[in-house]
Design goal:
The protein has 769 residues and is of the alpha/beta class. 45% of the residues lie in helices and 17% in strands. The protein contains 26 helices and 28 strands. The chain has an eight-stranded mixed barrel with strand order 20-21-23-24-25-26-27-28, surrounded by five helices. Strands 4-3-2-10-1-9 form a six-stranded parallel sheet, sandwiched between helices. It has a five-stranded mixed sheet with strand order 14-15-13-18-19, with helices on both faces. Helix 4 links the parallel strand 2 and strand 3. Helix 1 packs antiparallel against helix 9, helix 1 packs antiparallel against helix 11 and helix 20 packs parallel to helix 21. The chain starts with a helix and ends with a helix. Bound molecules: ligand C2E and magnesium ion (2 copies). The site of ligand C2E has 26 residues, from strand 21, helix 18, strand 23, strand 24 and strand 25.
Length: 769
């Protein structure tokens, strides 16, 4: 599909051509030409002289007129007029003698005398002019006094010849040009009179003076082309623009036409020229990739050319049809305005003022093949809860800020908004070798709290990507949304669906059924990872981590099967199993007087209703475990949709005596709001920071700040993921309470854990004794 701009310019050009074929834009051109006639112009050359009659010509008898003509023509001959065009009707009078003498005089001068035939009455229904009398018919060569008169009585062009009684006769103006060179092919080209020349500036001689042989009159006509204008009152009214209106006559127009020819002017640039010239310019502007600014400059230059043509062409004495380019510009302008309006209103989300998913779809559909593109959906977690605290203006501001974070480094990229919690983006496949790395980086940047007004507000996002080559645009968007939904705040924030994964998706379906079997057959086990008190170095408890070994696939990481459980609606089942096993472990440890505090991971999304309360109560009832030895770690706190509800649920459980820990604090979302709103007893600082404490001062500051926060909130701190001794010491010196990590102890079976703890108990007994 062609770019909309190119399409719009092509349609505008086609419409202009169609309109140019009709004459509907003529009134606009006439108005333009009338205005141009007011431009300053040169005076006529003077080589064409008009013979007129100022006295009341209409009242004169034909005899008088013929006598005047006879003398005038005789004197013109004597004075050496170059050419004489008789543009007044030659009529028969009641004095045959005078008439014959007139005829003979004309015939004697026939080499340079022409008789004008009257207007073609077919063209002009209001022709008043009388025909020439038969007597004068072949006295001299016949020319036509015709011209193209429009519906307002203006003459904008004169043909080189007109048909008179079926025979082509040269137009009077071509004869007036005479033998002078013009640089124009006057015998074949029409002329467009340059009306900057005024009729009143044409030299005029009175026929009475000429007939009387006045020296001043004779002096004016020597060597000139002379046009004897209509001496009767029966001429057509012709208007000449630019002047005072009706002051011209057809003779004036012929003379101005001849004067225009003498200047090699009077060309006409019709729509045939202007549409291609301006059309190609417009197409070029539309097709060339230009920034907004340069395109605007381009449009301005293009439009200014219309103004340039408006001024320059008439100043050269020529005429141009500008109504067509003006029409072209207007049509194109309308198309663009509609497109912009639609883009602004139909394709824009009213709240965020970001382009919406309709625009997203349109954009993707316009790309043709999607194989070069990667579709990215960003899901904003807990948006409803955030919006509950913001006014509608601030909600838009929040969304825009998140969107602008996502375009960091690539400000030209568009972020689309579905009106809810999803944002869409498109990446070029070729630009990203390490897509996951890039998206994780992007997510880290986008997850910084944004300032709305003066208030910092958390941003928690997950990213779903469809990079398979399957399906149409809608399929691909849906699949990227599904990926974003499946992405998990804490342990799989970027979920990429690729062709490869489309296979494993299949596998996941069979995995799901096997997982369900494993759950019902109670084959999910737990491993326990000890937690150590940093100051005393003693084990104080353990975290229960779910483990599942599939017969076919071997050990499946919890990250993977927990998602499957969630999709299959079996998360409660899993939690129940892990909870019971953890409680049993705690009871066994307590029985041997070993540290027996066991933490169980529960996903934040389970805190939407009291099912989790029932689950805990039932497990406590079934195992008879001491609730004070059980802790719940809430994972993925960013996924809490309703903090108030979650708080109520937690408080119910707390009343049973169970404590709460906020897991993976500091990653994904700021989860400060969850920390603030929910009654936690312990904070687990994510390994992302603890790992770097010895290497990176920034990580150190983050951990220090979190530890401060813990103290301020009266919470216990657990630093997770410590896998080096240096890290352990560094965090201990910073005042961390508990630690957990591979360098202390790996997740292990209950049997092994008991060994470890017994050994420690034994050592401390030895130390004490
Ligand atoms: P988590 O709760 O933050 O658990 C800690 C994870 O970090 C565990 O991975 C653990 O094996 C690992 N870990 C501990 N020390 C170190 C260390 O020094 N270095 C490194 N690199 N890793 C260390 P695991 O067992 O794969 O669990 C991953 C996540 O799965 C857990 O993160 C938790 O969010 C989730 N999970 C595990 N079991 C359950 C469960 O029963 N229910 C729920 N809802 N989620 C669970
Ligand atoms: Mg945990
Ligand atoms: Mg953790």
């Amino acid at each position: 599909m062609a770019k909309p701009r190119v399409r719009h310019s092509a349609i505008a050009i086609a419409l202009s051509v169609l309109v140019a074929l009709t004459v509907s834009l003529l009134p606009l051109d006439l108005a333009i030409w009338a205005a141009q006639a007011k431009f300053p112009g040169e005076k006529p050359s003077g080589s064409i002289v008009l013979v007129t009659d100022k006295s009341n010509a209409a009242s004169k008898s034909i005899v008088t007129t013929n006598r005047l003509l006879l003398r005038a023509i005789t004197n013109l001959e004597r004075a050496g007029a170059d050419r004489i065009v008789i543009d007044t009707p030659l009529r028969a009078s009641n004095d045959a003698g005078i008439d014959r003498r007139l005829r003979d005089t004309i015939a004697a001068a026939r080499e340079r005398t022409y008789i004008a035939a009257p207007f073609n009455s077919e063209i002009s229904s209001i022709s008043l002019r009388q025909p020439n009398a038969e007597l004068f018919a072949d006295a001299a060569a016949m020319v036509s006094s015709d011209m193209d008169i429009d519906f307002l009585d203006y003459v904008w062009s004169l043909a080189p010849s007109y048909a008179v009684n079926g025979e082509n006769r040269p137009a009077a103006w071509t004869v007036l040009v005479g033998g002078q060179s013009t640089g124009r092919d006057i015998a074949n080209e029409a002329i467009h009179p340059d009306y900057r020349m005024q009729p009143r500036d044409l030299p005029e001689v009175q026929i009475a003076d000429l007939a009387a042989g006045k020296a001043s009159a004779l002096a004016q006509v020597g060597g000139k082309s002379v046009l004897i204008a209509n001496l009767g009152g029966d001429d057509r009214v012709i208007r000449t623009p630019g002047g005072a209106g009706r002051e011209g006559t057809s003779a004036h127009v012929s003379a101005i036409a001849a004067e225009t020819a003498l200047r090699s002017a009077g060309f006409y640039y019709a729509a045939l020229y202007t549409i291609p010239v301006f059309g190609i310019g417009l197409l070029f502007l539309a097709a060339v990739p230009l920034g907004r600014r340069w395109r605007r400059i381009g449009y301005a230059v293009w439009a200014s050319q219309i103004v340039v043509a408006f001024v320059a062409v008439p100043m050269m004495g020529d005429r141009v049809s500008l109504a067509d380019p003006v029409f072209l510009a207007s049509v194109y302008g309308c198309f663009r305005a509609i497109a912009n309006y639609r883009r602004r209103h139909l394709y824009v989300d009213t709240q965020s003022r970001l382009p919406n998913f309709t625009a997203f779809r349109r954009y993707l559909e316009a790309q043709g093949s999607l194989n070069d593109h990667i579709l990215v959906i960003v899901k904003i977690a807990r948006l409803d809860a955030i919006f509950a605290t913001l006014g509608s203006h601030e909600q838009g501001e929040y969304l825009r800020q998140v969107a602008s974070r996502l375009t960091l480094g690539e400000s030209s990229a568009n972020v689309y908004h579905d009106g809810g919690k999803y944002l869409g983006m498109v990446f070029r496949r070729a630009d990203y070798i390490d897509l996951r790395g890039h998206l994780e980086g992007l997510r880290a940047i986008a997850s910084q709290a944004v300032l709305v007004g003066d208030t910092p507000i958390d941003v928690a996002i997950t990213i779903g990507v469809d990079q398979s080559n399957e399906g149409d645009v809608s399929n691909r968007i849906s699949s990227a949304i599904a990926a974003a939904d499946q992405a998990r705040e804490a342990y799989r924030p970027v979920f990429i669906i690729s062709d490869f994964q489309a296979d494993s998706e299949e596998w996941d379906h069979s995995l799901q059924s096997r997982l369900e079997n494993a759950l019902s057959e109670n084959r999910i086990s737990v491993k326990l990872q000890p937690k150590v008190d940093m100051q005393s170095g003693l084990f104080v408890g353990a975290e229960a981590l779910a483990r599942w070994t599939d017969q076919q696939r071997g050990e499946i990481p919890p990250v993977r099967f927990i998602i499957q459980c969630e999709r299959a609606g079996r998360l409660d089942d899993l939690t129940k199993r892990v909870m019971e096993k953890s409680m049993q472990a705690s009871i066994e440890l307590a029985r041997e007087k070993l540290p027996c505090k066991v933490s169980v991971n529960v996903s934040a999304i389970q805190f939407v209703d009291s099912r989790v309360v029932d689950l805990v109560e039932l497990a406590l009832g079934a195992t008879q475990a001491d609730p004070r030895n059980i802790m719940i770690e809430i994972t993925e706190t960013a996924r809490v949709e309703n903090l108030t509800r979650a708080r109520e649920v937690m408080e119910e459980i707390k009343r049973l005596g169970i404590e709460f820990s906020i897991d993976d604090f500091g990653v994904g979302s700021g989860n400060l709001d969850a920390l603030y709103a929910l009654p936690f007893d312990e904070m687990k600082i994510d390994r992302m920071f603890s790992n770097e404490v010895t290497r990176c001062p920034k990580a150190r500051s983050v951990v220090a700040a979190m530890l401060d926060l813990c103290r301020a909130f009266g919470m216990r701190s657990v630093v997770e993921g410590i896998d080096e001794l240096d890290t352990f010491e560094a965090v201990r010196d910073m005042g961390g309470d508990l630690a957990q990590g591979f360098c202390i102890a790996r997740p292990q079976t209950l049997t092994l854990l008991k060994e470890t703890l017994r050994l420690q108990a034994h050592q401390s007994i030895v130390r004490q004794s």
